[in-house]
Amino acid sequence: VYFGSFQDLLGREAGTGAIKPKNEWIHTTDWDLVVFDEYHFGAWRDTAKELFEGETDASAAKGEYSADLEQVNEDLEVLSEAETEFLPITTRAYLYLSGTPFKALATGEFIEEQIFNWTYTDEQRAKAEFAKAHPGERNPYAALPEMRLLTYQMPQELLAIASGGEFNEFDLNAFFAATGTEADATFTHKDDVQKWLQVIRGEHAPEEALKSGSRPPWPYAQAQLLPWLNHALWFLPSVAACEAMRNLLAEPQNRSFWGDYNVVMAAGPTAGLGLAAVGPVRAAIGEGYKTKTITLSCGKLTTGVTIKEWSSILMLRNLKSPETYFQAAFRAQSPWSIKNPDGDDPNREDIVKPVCFVFDFAPTRALRQVWQYGAGLSPGESNLEKAVADLVSFLPVLAYADGKMVAVNAGEILDIAMAGTSGTLLARKWESALLVNVDDATLRKVLADPEAMKVVERIEGWRALGDNVIETIIARSDAVKDLKKKARDGELSQKEKKQLTEEEKEYKSLRKKVQEKLIKFATRIPAFMYLTDFRENTLKDVITRIEPDLFQTVTGLTVADFQLLVDLKVFNTERMNEAVFAFRRYENASLRYTGIDSHPDQEQVGGYDTAKALATDPGLAI
Question: Is the pLDDT of residue 354 over 50?
Fold first, then answer.
């Protein structure tokens, strides 16, 4: 068994491009299994792929990582199993391991028989079922904490500082923007960040709280929450922001309360690389019972690291991808228990951390992450509300707004997360590459069906791609696989290397063009929805039963044509459901804004091939 990093194992000698001498034995061994740990992470980005080809840059050679973890995950590209053939390591089998494999699942990279799941929802369900079935017995899942998400709308006087952009949402990155380094680092909006520190401590009563007459349940102001904040991770947008927060917490006006906490910097060059950053955190925490710590990070220690004493995390930066968000959030979910505490009962286990908390100050963004995570855990579930409800049953979500904290159900999460969308975001849903499947398996099914071939040829602009475009893509793809196999066996000539590059470029270019034509067809579906008024019906029913002629007029394909492509999985129905629901919610919000309610008795809203009940309070504003 050998553990190693991509930088070391797959890097090459500078100048010669040869495999590092100390690693030659690894490349000449036939391994039983290669495990790609943290498969969601940046090992599959183009910059990391260069490492496999010996084109390491200076920072990669030193093993340095970007402080901005979001930059790693935002444009993440995963490789198919076939594409891993370029790896200069031979093995019988691969295992792709990840706690947040959403992109790999959503793109259909793995078939059902290749996917083995054990998620947060699974473990919490197992804990509840064991407790019910075996009351009084030691629960083997008891030490796994239940996570709770508390979201807070910032006070109005602070919202104005950093709101705007595409969604007119509160921008945490702008609010916590900072300049300078080390002792000179300071927040751009220092007075407002100081006010925020007072708000979460309960020392500043926002205007809306005064109007409601209630005491807001801010994190560091509630006796029930304070024990779970003894050791917390604060996730900030940059190294400068971390340094500025450390400096601000140390100022005289903050020492009376924040002085009780040992502030640990896990950001910047002084924090150390990789696991070196863990030592100072563990040293500050000690045994954890009598100490209090705040760890400041903008990326370090937010994936693949276990600090059992962390019981909460404050999300103080914008994070768009659920991978990054929940990788960081689950740092607080590591179990903390003491087995056989008195030394006389090996079956006894004292649970120190039964629950853990995520505190978020950008509610709409946070709830969007929850529904994306819920949908990601259940990629085959077409009913988004059901997928989210399953998660929320074990991850309670509470939202504070307008002076009160309320529990948020699955339907309300979808409403809040989607109703605030913009026309631009809605258009992107219908232009997403995930909406269509152009992998080899799907193209082979289309090619094998003469009727399907006639259908795709009727799609506008298809003929411009040339004759036999699907056959060409499949042939080029097969040729590339054969050449890569020869490359792995070291049998590739210089001429064949050039051929490999050209073949790869050509088939990827053709596949991209096919994808664009299919997406262009998909973008006509919103136009069809604008022209039909059957909102409670699923779009599939409207197309096939109610207005088939209108559908053909708008899209150029008949109902039978479109259904054939759907049956062949050319179109991703899960993504279509998501896009249709977003359209309906956006349309509802727009009409409601103008004072129009064209469907006052509507009880449900239709997606593509499923419908869901409207939330109990669709006007809930957070």
Answer: yes
